[in-house]
Specification:
Blueprint lengths: L6 H28 L4 H9 L18 H12 L3 H21 L2 H13 L3 E5 L15 E5 L2 E12 L6 E14 L5 E11 L5 E3 L13 E12 L3 E2 L5 H37 L1 E2 L2 E2 L4 H30 L4 H26 L9 H8 L10 H11 L5
Parallel strand pairs: 1-4
Antiparallel strand pairs: 2-3, 3-7, 4-5, 5-8, 6-7, 9-10
Helix pairs in contact: 1-3, 3-4, 3-6, 4-5, 4-6, 6-7, 6-8, 7-8, 8-9, 8-10
């Protein structure tokens, strides 16, 4: 496995990093305190082609690949995780299911604006009693003539209530099927729901510990009617479709976490070289130096892990276990680096205008979102043949 970036990949990373440093970082504290997604920054990201990176030029995309999307997510995550996850979720959870499973008509209708960044889409999977156990989904969709009638609710849905959100793809029980074991199981399907549909309510945003800029809402669906052709992919294939979506999403999520770990490392290293105590820089203290050395090691591990998984996606090779390893390793690296960076900054690290303070609040979700650390361990053990 070659972990070197090509000239094209390095140029992309440098370009997005420069945008992150000059545009995103200076505004991060203001938007964090206002708890709103800066749509002007999202518009600039659309103009840069970031939402279209892994999609063909046929739909207005950049014709690149999933690895390059992850590079962009990492570069943004260095300075603002909320902006990074807006791109990660917007592409991986919003656009990718339609690109992979949509009909020609659905692709033609929705992809151009989503890929250009003129619109955003969400993916409605999680419910109050159906998170890690997605098979417990209670939202239902019943055919009534040529329309699906949907009832239920969703939780923690990213990009679901922005001014440019057009659709949310939701999972719903559309019937029952008999499994190979002879037992009756819920038939799970995915359906596209436009945000302006009557009965579809985007509830007030959450009061979150971190990711204050990221748009996250609960959703309520009461007798929501959408055309029969809004079924995304084959009926009853919803479970398989969202598993593929989550597997790929974990790799981009790992890139986001790696960026956060890198950002904490950069801030701690800069401060350790500048801060003078008792006549010398704190970086000359062996404990501080060793702490930063461990932070560097964590970033290196996390980056190698997501690079490995993303390269396998691009090569069309199996990557499920590698995706879970990358998600777990990088999430822990981000949280550990945020904790260490905050400690190195001391009291200054406890001020919200400090980037490491925001990373400290933001990073905990990196061990929870897109599948908790415990879920990743379950997947890894299953891939090793150790558990059913």
């Amino acid at each position: 496995m070659n972990y070197d970036l090509s000239t094209e990949e390095q140029d992309l990373y440098d370009r997005v990093s420069d945008f992150a440093d000059t545009v995103v970082a200076p505004a991060a504290y203001e938007y964090d305190t206002q708890r709103r997604l800066p749509m002007e920054i999202i518009a600039q990201m659309g103009e840069m082609g970031l939402f279209g990176l892994p999609f063909p030029t046929t739909y207005g995309g950049q014709g690149k690949d999933y690895f390059q999307l992850c590079l962009a997510v990492e570069a943004l995550g260095r300075v603002d995780q909320s902006i990074g996850v807006t791109l990660e979720a917007g592409v991986g959870l919003g656009i990718m299911p339609i690109y992979r499973n949509g009909s020609p008509a659905q692709r033609e209708k929705w992809l151009p604006d989503l890929i250009a960044g003129r619109a955003l889409a969400g993916f409605g999977l999680t419910e109050a009693r159906a998170g890690s156990d997605a098979g417990a989904t209670e939202t239902t969709a019943v055919l009534d003539g040529d329309e699906w009638v949907i009832n239920g609710s969703k939780q923690f849905i990213t990009n679901s209530g922005t001014p440019i959100t057009r659709i949310v793809t939701i999972t719903a029980v559309t019937g029952e099927r008999v499994g190979r074991d002879g037992r009756t199981k819920p038939e799970l399907s995915t359906i596209i729901v436009p945000n302006a549909t009557p009965g579809f309510t985007v509830e007030p945003s959450y009061d979150k510990v971190g990711w204050h800029t990221s748009d996250t809402h609960p959703l309520t669906l009461e007798n929501v009617r959408v055309p029969r052709e809004n079924l995304l992919g084959d009926r009853g294939r919803g479970y398989a479709n969202f598993l593929q979506t989550l597997d790929e999403g974990r790799v981009a999520f790992a890139a986001l976490a790696t960026g956060a770990a890198q950002g904490c490392l950069e801030e701690a290293l800069r401060y350790a070289k500048e801060r003078v105590v008792f006549g010398t820089t704190i970086g000359s203290n062996q404990h501080i130096a060793f702490t930063i050395a461990k932070m560097q090691a964590r970033v290196h591990q996390a980056r190698l892990a997501w690079h490995d998984a993303a390269r396998k996606i691009v090569a069309g090779r199996p990557f499920k276990m590698e995706a879970s390893i990358a998600k777990m390793v990088s999430g822990e690296a981000a949280m550990d680096n945020a904790r260490d960076a905050t400690q190195i900054f001391g009291g200054y690290g406890f001020l919200n205008q400090n980037a490491v303070a925001r990373h400290y609040r933001d990073s905990k979700i990196l061990e929870i979102g897109e599948g908790t650390t415990e879920v990743q361990l379950m997947i890894i053990t299953r891939e090793l043949g150790l558990a059913g």
